[in-house]
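Title: Prediction job returns without error message
Component: structure pipeline
Severity: low
Priority: P3
Assignee: unassigned

Description:
Job completed but the reporter wants confirmation the result is attached to the right record. Sequence as submitted:
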Amino acid sequence: MNGTRQGNHTEGVRTMTRFNTQLVHGLPVNDNNTGAVNPPIYNSSTYAFESVEAMPRWDYARSGNPTREFLEKQIAQLEHGTRGFAFGSGLAAIHAVLSIFQPGDRIVVGIDAKDGIVAVDGWGVSGDVEATALAKEMKKAGVKTIIYTDISRDGTLSGVNVEATAKLARESGVAVVASGGVKSIADIEALKPYEKAGIEGVIVGKSIYMGMLDLAEAIEIAAKEG
């Protein structure tokens, strides 16, 4: 966001987009009698129990408080999600995510790039880092598989970027799953020769639903010995 208002002009009045309106006004504040348009900040670390048997909505600040819950609901609304989660540190957030997995589970890292440069923040910002350089760093961190998406082709059905995907696999030494732009069986056939170079799979979506690629045929080709 650049802080400017965007939208249509009606009788000289600049109207705000729906997102900007949500960002400025947020969710309604209904938990106080002052008429404040912002949620109050609760500094209490503990909360009262009505009885020994009754568990209150909030018991201790570390597990949550009304202000934090309001922030989480606001995040969920802006991101069109069902839930939002706020943490006191990045380490706490990482721990929460990793707690979902069980021993032996595999975590695949995604790298989204355009013209070989990593894209971040919803693909709208250049990360100023080469995809191959990031893949090498991921390998050092223990990553075994990367999903590589050429965002300039994703959803366009213009054909997968075989050259860039193969380059990433060769130079990083990490197994790569190709993604973005897959149009037909020809893309599967074009990727197959690079299986030994490290391309171990491909993500296909839109071309299947558009009837441009037969999934059974694609699996048969991919399963053939190289």
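Comment from assignee: result matches the submitted record. Residues 1-16 have pLDDT under 50 and may be disordered.
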